[in-house]
Amino acid sequence: MPYFALFGDYKRQFYRPKSKNYIVLTNHNTDWDFFLVGACLPHQMYFVASEHILSGFTGRLIKFLVDPIPRPKGASAEQTVAMITERLKQGHNVCMFVEGNRSFSGETGWISPANGPLVKNSGAGLITVATHGGYFVDPRWSDRPRKGPAWGEVVREYTPEELASMSEEEITAAIRKDLYVDAYADQEVKPGRYRGKDLAQHLETALFVCPQCGSMSGLRSAGDRFFCADCGMELEFTEYGYFRSPYQDMPGPRFTTVRDWDRWQQTVLHDYFDANREDPEKLLFSDSGLTLKRINEDHSRSIISTGTARMYPDRLVFEGDEARSCFFLSDISRMSVTLRDRLMFTSSGGYFEIVSDHPYPGRKYMLAWRYLCGKTYR
């Protein structure tokens, strides 16, 4: 499989667990993290896998190899939790990527407090495994993987006896501490070179607010270049994962890392949403050339319409060529982004996804929903 060649520089820390059966929790940066984590431990594990990767030839191969526990994106996780609990009670081992999403910025994302009760009530041990380097080897926002150093390490094992003496909140706090990884902090300690082509490809799906002019629609990528079509700002993305000016006579970039740019971008979004949340007719942003689909119970998709998504302070509207669909934010119970820019969400009307045949920042719709609805947000 070609992906394995990308991890030729992968270094693992092999570990023999003390617990008879255990749940493994880990951070998430590549679509092949289950192989990287599995290489650190000796026993068979059942992986919790996002529903979207279980379709097509690759999905059938994954099902054959590891028989994963499916986790629908943007839908209720109750059935998934029940399946995890059942396999642990049967004496099997389970591995789960607790962020639920690969990182866009290189930092470990939000980890739900629901993980504390899940671990405490499982009766199994807990092993935390942190993987490093994967963000630069296989950036979520790009189709162009690179070759460079990556490694995985067991951070800590918690026996069932230790977990019994900890509160659910203490377990969640321990998980968050163990699994926090900052790809750029790793680079500062030991710089790694990640070689590849078109290093900035599709970076506009992760970073969509221009720090020079504030545009939310002008950022574009081409080859190793990242630029704003509205104001002319132009940067180069290097093999070490940093931004720099492509010309000596140009000023240096305001942000040299995706991490810092994204932190600033989210602050800008907060202010923008707060300034406009009282005006329900304010169009926050929109994107055209998208397709709205319904996800059926058998995981098949039915096309509803093709057209434009529009985000308002209180609703997401899809203006299609065949139908107009309106989803009030308060009626959306779950929303997530899979792959690079596929938006998935659940409302009282069903389970839906918005897809595109061209790169667009679907992530900004999820960020808007989370903030405007008062969800835990980072």
Descriptive account of the structure:
The chain is an alpha/beta fold. It has three domains: 2-189, no CATH class; 203-276, no CATH class; 285-372, Roll (PH-domain like), CATH 2.30.29.30. It is built from eleven helices and 18 strands. The protein has helices spanning 2-6, 33-38, 56-66, 78-89, 115-122, 134-137, 160-164, 168-178, 183-189, 258-276, 363-372, and strands spanning 10-12, 22-26, 46-50, 69-71, 94-97, 125-132, 150-158, 219-222, 225-228, 234-237, 243-244, 285-295, 301-311, 315-320, 324-328, 332-338, 342-347, 350-356. The chain has a seven-stranded mixed sheet with strand order 1-7-6-2-5-3-4. A seven-stranded antiparallel sheet has the order 15-14-13-12-18-17-16, with helices on one face. Strands 8-9-10-11 form a four-stranded antiparallel sheet, with no helix packed on it. Strand 17 (342-347) and strand 18 form a beta hairpin. The radius of gyration is 21 Å and the shape is globular. The two termini are 35 Å apart. Mean pLDDT is 89; it is low at 1-5.
Strand elements, count: 18
Strand order of the largest sheet: 1-7-6-2-5-3-4
Largest sheet descriptor: 7 strands, mixed
Helix tally equals 11
Helical fraction: 25-40%
Write down the Rg: 21 Å
Can you give me a brief rundown of this structure?
With 378 residues, the chain is α/β, with parallel strands linked by helices. The protein has helices at residues 2-6, 33-38, 56-66, 78-89, 115-122, 134-137, 160-164, 168-178, 183-189, 258-276, 363-372, and strands at 10-12, 22-26, 46-50, 69-71, 94-97, 125-132, 150-158, 219-222, 225-228, 234-237, 243-244, 285-295, 301-311, 315-320, 324-328, 332-338, 342-347, 350-356. It has 3 domains: 2-189, no CATH class; 203-276, no CATH class; 285-372, PH-domain like (Roll), CATH 2.30.29.30.
